């Protein structure tokens, strides 16, 4: 793991220290890594949303479309569960 030193104004350092204490982080590094991961996730989601918005419309999202989706979900929920491969039967 690489090391990075950052400089923060006193008010920001106090804020970070407070977050570490109040939110259960072990260190300020853990807090910052969590912030960076969340930002990465946000950027990834933004990219997916932009790609979806740029994609051609395959099917219009009408009430009928959503009703068909609901029927598919209900059918799967009502179907008997398939046995898991390699699972042992309980006696």
Put the structure in a nutshell.
It contains 3 helices and no strands.
List the helices and strands and how they pair.
Layout: H1 10-22, H2 28-54, H3 63-78
Helix pairs in contact: 1-2
What is the beta-strand fraction? Answer: under 5%
Instruction: Compute the average pLDDT.
Output: 92
How is the main sheet built?
none
Radius of gyration: 24 Å
The count of β-strands is 0
Q: Report how far the terminal alpha carbons are from each other.
A: 50 Å
* Global morphology: elongated
* Percent helix range: 55-70%
Low-confidence stretches: none
> Secondary-structure element sequence?
HHH
Explain what the structure shows:
There is one protein chain. By secondary structure, the protein is an all-alpha fold. It has one domain (10-78). The protein contains 3 helices and no strands. The chain has helices at 10-22, 28-54, 63-78. Helix 1 (10-22) crosses helix 2 (28-54). The termini are far apart.
Features:
0% strand; 3 helices; mainly alpha; 91 residues; single chain
């Amino acid at each position: 793991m690489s090391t990075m030193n950052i400089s923060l104004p006193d008010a920001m350092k106090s804020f970070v220290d407070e977050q570490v204490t109040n939110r259960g982080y072990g260190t300020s590094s853990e807090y910052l890594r969590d912030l960076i991961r969340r930002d990465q996730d946000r950027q990834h989601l933004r990219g997916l949303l932009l790609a979806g918005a740029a994609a051609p419309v395959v099917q219009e999202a009408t009430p009928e479309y959503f009703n068909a989706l609901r029927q598919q979900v209900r059918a799967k929920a009502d179907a008997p569960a398939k046995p898991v491969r390699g699972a042992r039967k309980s006696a």
